């Protein structure tokens, strides 16, 4: 057994994972996992896969693959670097821009300057024109067209029926205005913030999400494919740890938690939801499928 193989095996056992668990998470056959731990790389079909399997193994058990390769260079086949270099050298060179596009890019600064001058001139013209219009005298309103907001006085020349009609119209207008104000105030009070889930940071295989706009939170972990899943609360207590079979799910109320940490062995096979809303995460095809997810509960402060 090589030093690299021993380090990987120790990390796997620290995670409490068997070779069968690791096989289910990484989709790498058990005999290849054993070969990696024993340093018997001849069993693996093609030296190109040796480095890929070691990378997948290490990240699944929580190790940094780049640091691991640098520390145990002597335990990884040296021909692996040559194969990667050869594949990179075979990639097509970046296409150059056509001459017409190059000319346009050269003239772009001049075009931007001209557009800027035009915009400034337009703003200046609008400000001057608007200033002149604002000085025009207001229209006089005929006193005969003004509508009285007061009830009809007792000495008005109107008949009793006309007085009652006038008073009724005035009171109706006041009631309508009051109802509109009450409705607007009620709408403002009943409006609640909308649940929002946003990614706020990413480092290595760890992505951090903030959840706002909800006082109560329910976390759901749904297995579309079988995967190893671990969920810990803010105190480090494990709420779920082990294989989550296809079609199974795990849910937990996390309203009282400031943050929750998850480790997904096979991320493409897992769907995360908070209050029924899916947590959208994207996987780079060149990155490991094992991911760490941190969900931070940003509780809204109640106004006094």
TrEMBL record:
Pfam family, one: RodZ_C
Source taxon at top rank: Bacteria
Segments of this protein annotated with the region Disordered: 134-203
Positions of transmembrane segments: 104-128
Molecular functions (GO terms): DNA binding
Residue intervals of the HTH cro/C1-type domain: 7-63
Residue ranges with Basic and acidic residues bias: 160-172
Protein name (record): HTH cro/C1-type domain-containing protein
